[in-house]
Structures are given as C-alpha cells and as structure tokens.
Amino acid sequence: MNTIFDDFKNAFRRGDNGVVQLILINLIVYLVINFLLVISAISNNGNALSQFLLMNLALPAPVLSFLVKPWTLITYFFTHEGFWHILWNMLFLYWFGNLVKEYLGNRRFVNVYILGGISGGVLYLLMYNLVPYFVNNQPYLGLIGASGAVYAVVVAAATLIPNYTFNLLLIGPVRIVYIAAFYVVASFFGLAGGNAGGNLAHLGGAVIGFLFIRQLHRGTDLGRPITYLADKFNGLFQRKPKLRVTHNGKPTTRTRRATGTSGKPDQQEIDAILDKISHSGYESLTKEEKQKLFSASQNQRE
C-alpha cells in the first residue's frame, strides 16, 4: 500500500508531469464519487452522498446558482461519474496531451487544459442563460466532465502539428487534424441532442485550443494569467533561500529571492521553429532546434 502512495507522491513532485497529474486528479475525484455511491447504496440512503458531492462540483446552468458556487467553473472539468466517460476523456488527454507537452512544454500544456475547461464552462453558462432553446432545457445536475478541457488539448495539438498521424485500429494512419475535425463537427451536430451541454463545452474548449496556438505563433501566450497565478500560489509554500553575508566582519543571515538568467532562445527563433512544426511536423526539426524548443518551454516563467 505504501508503494501506491509513494507512486502518487512522486507523480506530483515532478514538475514536468502534467499529463499524469491531471489524469490522477480526475481519477481520484471519480473514485471518491463512486465510493460514496456504493456507501450510500448499502446504507439505504439511495445515492444521497454522491449526489451531494456532485451538486457541489458540477457547473450549474442557472447563473444565480453559479454565483453561489463559483468554484464549479473549475471543479466541473475534474469531475466524472460514468466509467466510459472518464475512460475516453483520459485516453484522449494522454494521447494528445503528451504531444502538446512535448512540443510546447509542461506549463503550456496545463494552461491549455485549464483554459479549455474554463472556456467550455463559460460558453455553457452563456448559452443556457441567453438562448431560449437551451434555457428551456436546462439539465438538473449541471455540467461535469473534462471533455471541454480535453477538446482544447486535442485541437491545440491538431493546430500545432496537423500532419502528425495516429495509427487507428482497422483504419490505419490518420492525420490528427482530421481526427480533431471529426469530433468538433460531431459536437456541433450534437447540440440538438441529449448532451447539448457537454457538446457546448466541447466547442468552447476547441475554440480556445485553436486560438491558443494561433496566438502563440503571433508571440502572445494566452496562458500567462494561469502561469502567473500558479507561480503566486506555489510561492506561498516555498521558503526563500538564506544567504550568509559578512557585514563589518560579522557573518549575518539574510533572505532574498534567488534570481538567474533564463537562457531562453530568441522569440523569433521559437516562432520560426513552431512554424516549421506546423508545416512539416516535429520530426523535421534538427537536434539543435529541438533543444531550443525544449529550453524555451522549460524556462517559460511568464
């Protein structure tokens, strides 16, 4: 048992392990919800415990309900109830997330996921409060699932490296731009179906995934606010390094923030590399170009 907990701790200690960390968070929430579902069932409480948790994690459609529970704009895209729902979301997150992480770095991958989830939630709220068709068909529970965030990652990967191919069972090699396009179109057609809210989140996430890469090519990182907030949050739990200095012959201890040079490649170089990936794929990069791209993603502190 200790080995399992050690594996979990090691997964979260690594700073470049965003794909696994996000999958684990989704998995933990899923297991807690379904554990409570079992406990409720055997204690003759129906599903009261799991429903109470879901109601406080799901994004409600009525805007007044959302204003009472604003945290749900974040928690909803870490929450799943059904097995197949979380399975497919986590598989797509793993497949496409590792691509985004490899090309843009861990931080930007996590930023795409979070921005995609928020964007999907915002579109869901807007449509269910402004468009009569959706207003008249508001779901009881609200919105749950990482699909919007995952769609952002999928579309970001397809926008960045459209010619990258996956070998699909019974089909063969398919470029990821076609895979992404298929799921986006299917989500649009599904707006009139039973999972309209989920499909709205898909489309909201897809839009932010596309815009994130396009703006990155123009030198604008849409994930800057997420990175800034994450740095501030992490700074609350980090001790400032202590330096021993000598003043008038007496050693004293002072605390200051450590600084250093980032050694980042020039932004124009990175833009040129990203353009090359977009047109010819990651495999076309030289070893030096891959090193520069990796260095830029690791040193990104915006």
From TrEMBL:
<keyword id="KW-0472">Membrane</keyword>
<feature type="transmembrane region" description="Helical">
    <location>
        <begin position="140"/>
        <end position="161"/>
    </location>
</feature>
<dbReference type="InterPro" id="IPR022764">
    <property type="entry name" value="Peptidase_S54_rhomboid_dom"/>
</dbReference>
<dbReference type="InterPro" id="IPR035952">
    <property type="entry name" value="Rhomboid-like_sf"/>
</dbReference>
<dbReference type="Pfam" id="PF20216">
    <property type="entry name" value="DUF6576"/>
</dbReference>
<feature type="transmembrane region" description="Helical">
    <location>
        <begin position="168"/>
        <end position="190"/>
    </location>
</feature>
<feature type="compositionally biased region" description="Basic residues">
    <location>
        <begin position="246"/>
        <end position="257"/>
    </location>
</feature>
<dbReference type="GO" id="GO:0016020">
    <property type="term" value="C:membrane"/>
</dbReference>
<feature type="transmembrane region" description="Helical">
    <location>
        <begin position="112"/>
        <end position="134"/>
    </location>
</feature>
<comment type="similarity">
    <text>Belongs to the peptidase S54 family.</text>
</comment>
<dbReference type="GO" id="GO:0006508">
    <property type="term" value="P:proteolysis"/>
</dbReference>
<protein>
    <submittedName>
        <fullName>Membrane associated serine protease, rhomboid family</fullName>
    </submittedName>
</protein>
<feature type="transmembrane region" description="Helical">
    <location>
        <begin position="83"/>
        <end position="100"/>
    </location>
</feature>
<keyword id="KW-1133">Transmembrane helix</keyword>
<keyword id="KW-0378">Hydrolase</keyword>
<dbReference type="GO" id="GO:0004252">
    <property type="term" value="F:serine-type endopeptidase activity"/>
</dbReference>
<feature type="transmembrane region" description="Helical">
    <location>
        <begin position="54"/>
        <end position="77"/>
    </location>
</feature>
<feature type="region of interest" description="Disordered">
    <location>
        <begin position="246"/>
        <end position="269"/>
    </location>
</feature>
<keyword id="KW-0645">Protease</keyword>
<keyword id="KW-0812">Transmembrane</keyword>
<dbReference type="Pfam" id="PF01694">
    <property type="entry name" value="Rhomboid"/>
</dbReference>
<feature type="domain" description="DUF6576">
    <location>
        <begin position="266"/>
        <end position="298"/>
    </location>
</feature>
<dbReference type="InterPro" id="IPR050925">
    <property type="entry name" value="Rhomboid_protease_S54"/>
</dbReference>
<dbReference type="InterPro" id="IPR046483">
    <property type="entry name" value="DUF6576"/>
</dbReference>
<feature type="transmembrane region" description="Helical">
    <location>
        <begin position="20"/>
        <end position="42"/>
    </location>
</feature>
<feature type="domain" description="Peptidase S54 rhomboid">
    <location>
        <begin position="70"/>
        <end position="215"/>
    </location>
</feature>
